[in-house]
Amino acid sequence: MKLDSAVGCTLVLLLLTTVLSRTGAVPVPTALGTVPGARGCHLAQFKSLSPQEMKAFRRAKDALEEWLLLKTWSCGSRPFPRARDLRQLQVWERPVALEAELALTLKVLETVADSTLGDVLDQPLLTLRHIHAELQACVPAQSTAGPRPRGALRSWLHRLQEAQKKESQGCLEASVTFNLFRLLTRDLQCVASGDLCV
What we know:
single chain
């Protein structure tokens, strides 16, 4: 008889756990890299890029670095400071920050591609545009009803906006180049991992 009541209690607990997690009453980690409430948000595919994509990015970064050696540039600030870490942000803020970083990266690299390095940047730009499109599906619409950027996210977004206004094109090109692999490996992987990025 005691065994039957133990089995019954276990079944009730399993049922209760299932109901609570499916209704959202209990938070469940988003292991698939989706942002809660975002429709069509499928970032888990970006936990790691293919070896071919990484090779194309390496070639592009090498070409950009060689190209930058021929230019004179300086920065008044760091658009992508080393101390920043997406893990400092709340899970819903991470895609917002990454989307802003990626938008600036695309804007700068598209300008470079138009001028000189088009052949080397074609494949990386295609990949970055695809990631950006997928990421936009995960970013909450900026409306009065949605959460407003505050704290660390607000300063993060402000820094990127100010850099676009105040820094030279050469500074932006160098900053984007030196941040490229961090964006692709650390930041993108963290956002793709959702709650599991700690």
